[in-house]
Amino acid sequence: MLLLAIIALSYVAVGLPDSVLGTVWPAVYNDLNLPVSLAGYIGMTVSGCTVISCLLSTRLSARFGTGLVSAVSALMTALALIGLSFSQSPVFFFLLSIPLGMGAGTVDSALNGFVALYCSNSQMSYLHCFYGLGVTLSPYLVSLCLADDNNWRRAYITVGLIQTVISLLLFFAVPYWRKKEKTNLLKEETAPKTLTLKEMMKMPSVVLSCVVFYLICATEYTAGVWSSTFFAEYRDFTPDRAAKTAMLFYVGMTLGRFMSGVFGNKLGSKKILYICVSILLFASVIIALPLPPFAAAVGLLLFGFGMGPTFPNLSYLVPSLFGRDISSSVIGVQLASTYVGIMTLPPVFGILAEKVSAGLFPYFLFILMCLFVLASAFMMKSLKKKV
Q1: CA distances from 66 to 7, 9, 12, 71, 178 (A)
Q2: What integer pLDDT is reported at residue 129 of this predicted model?
Q3: Which of the listed residues 106, 289, 293, 337 has the most CB atoms within 10 Å of its CB?
Q4: Nearest to 357 by CA among 36, 40, 41
Q5: Model confidence over 51-105: pLDDT tens digits?
Q6: End-to-end CA gap in the chain
Q7: Quick count: other Cβ atoms within 10 Å of Cβ 185?
Q8: Residues 229, 239: contact at Cβ < 8 Å?
Q9: Degrees, nearest 5: CA angle 220-106-59
Q10: Which positions ≥6 away from 304 have C-beta within 8 Å?
Q11: Could you tell me if 216 and 310 are in contact, meaning their C-beta atoms sit under 8 angstroms apart?
């Protein structure tokens, strides 16, 4: 139970930084006179660094242990967030994106690899709820900081300090985590293998799974980064109200993961994924329809609800689909592909929002989800296994 609590805290640390940029951006670009699309390029920089750290994470975890990797990564992101509060120009945002991205990738990959191997389906979803807690807490704190005078700098400091406290707690837990990892390693029937990127790219099923992860996380991040701008620019919400509305996406994600935890062992990951995709397609239509703003906000909540269980259930299937011995390596490259998606597709929507209209937001999400369905079908066909 103590280990699960430690992992849960680590997931909070992963989630806290992820939703800050999207919710604070309307206040930032107005204050610093920046183009609205710049958020996409900043996110692209963070993701580029995260891709590198994901590819390194398997070796780092094998060398130093998941606990130490998680603690150091959380501290890196905390210091980056605090540093962003002093930014006076876009240069600072890009420079501090480096430690922010490097810290995010190592802890994300290490945690998902460990949990997929040693936790149940339901535990996987419950633990990802704490990621949802982190990404939900950030927009709420940001909205409080923006309410009076649009003070986005105070928002970065607040989230950064919370992240610092979490990282210190994780450092104290490192010895306990090392003990558990040694115990788990002795129980494995086959020794873990660390595959190179070249070796994994020769496996068609791994390549297709990377496309699946690319699309789902690109969709998730696009929704998180641009929902606040959609409501501020297209629905004429004030910045603080738009930030609070964007929080509904992360509330929905957390609720979805909780419900996946409740029904995960009974339904199985495959059925849950079918349900989630149906909800996601329906929710994107609701957001797109010319309904009152309240209906669009409910649609965003539903979109988060469908999105929440998708990633943890996809990750949970990895050991059974690809083998326990190489699952950590496969998850590392899959997560690298997710951040390539985060790095490339949200900036595309940023350009569309600036050149055309932020009203394209729900249509963009719908198209991404259709592509995800197609890629998933090809992946399952290539595996030719029952899940």
Answers
A1: 10, 13, 15, 9, 8
A2: 80
A3: 106
A4: 36
A5: 888 888 777 877 888 788 888 888 999 999 999 988 888 888 899 999 988 888 7
A6: 28
A7: 10
A8: no
A9: 135
A10: 223, 248, 249, 250, 251, 252, 253, 255, 256
A11: yes
Distances (CA, A) of 199 to 173, 194, 333: 34, 10, 11
Q: Structure tokens of 166?
A: 């979490």
Please classify residue 355 by burial: count the beta carbons closer than 10 Å to its beta carbon, then call 0-12 exposed, 13-18 middle and 19+ buried: exposed
Tokens at 11, concatenated: 């997931």
State how far the Cα of 110 lies from the Cα of 229, in Å rounded to an integer. Answer: 32
pLDDT in tens, 274-329: 999 999 999 999 988 888 888 888 999 999 999 989 988 888 888 878 877 777 78
Give the angle subtended at the CA of 242 by the CAs of 78 and 335, to the nearest 5°: 45
Across the chain, where does the E strand assignment appear? none
Residue corresponding to tokens 């595309």: 348
CA distance 90 to 94: 6
Determine which of 96-105, 185-194, 204-213, 290-299 has the lowest per-residue pLDDT on average. Answer: 185-194
- CA dist., res. 29 & res. 148, Å (int): 17
Chain-centre distance for alpha carbon 63:
25
Q: Work out the number of other CB atoms within 10 angstroms of the CB of residue 1.
A: 5
Amino acid identity for residue 105 in this structure: G
Please, are residues 227 and 245 in contact by the beta-carbon 8 Å criterion?
yes
Nearest-angstrom CA–CA distance, 330 and 336? 10
User: What size, in residues, is the chain?
Assistant: 387
